[in-house]
Design brief:
By secondary structure, the chain is of the alpha/beta class. It has a single domain, classed as Rossmann fold (3-Layer(aba) Sandwich), CATH 3.40.50. Helix content is about 35%, strand content about 15%. The protein is built from 4 helices and 5 strands; from the N terminus they run βαβαβαβαβ. It has a 5-stranded parallel beta sheet with strand order 2-1-3-4-5. Helix 1 links the parallel strand 1 and strand 2. The longest helix is centred in the last third of the chain and has 18 residues. The protein is globular and about 40 Å long. The two termini are about 20 Å apart.
Length: about 130
């Protein structure tokens, strides 16, 4: 699975996952900054063109857009969602470590590099240390 982290995800997350060999990019990366400021629909479409699932905690906006794509027969490449309740931002160091661990677990389980096929995946914290 290939991931695109939206701008709400801190910059170090993509780099931490890339050092583990995963294909993860972020809107904080120099080569993806041009996607910043796009509408959520445009970002979802841009991720789909690259075969990437969008990682975000903005389910409120992305889920309806995803449902609309599915209803039109365009599954896109999926969403990986998390919540502030599961991954609280009030302690940024813990937030980053726990989000990296959960994404690593997801990506490690997908060793074959499958396409997300329009799936919606809800992340939950892992007990595995980073």
């Amino acid at each position: 699975m290939r991931l695109l982290l939206d701008e709400l995800c801190p910059p170090g997350i993509a780099e931490a996952l890339r050092t583990r060999g995963h294909d993860v990019v972020s809107l904080h990366d120099a080569s993806y900054r041009h996607l910043r400021g796009m509408t959520d629909a445009e970002l979802l479409a841009a991720a789909g063109v690259e075969g990437r699932a969008v990682v975000t905690d903005n389910a409120r906006h992305f889920l309806p857009l995803h449902r609309e794509l599915v209803a039109r027969g365009r599954t896109g490449h999926g969403l990986v969602l998390f919540t502030n309740r599961s991954f609280p931002r009030h302690r940024p160091d813990v937030f980053v470590r726990s989000l990296v661990a959960a994404l690593r677990e997801l990506l490690d389980a997908d060793e074959g590099g499958s396409e997300p096929d329009g799936r919606v995946i809800w992340l939950s914290p892992t007990s595995r240390p980073t």
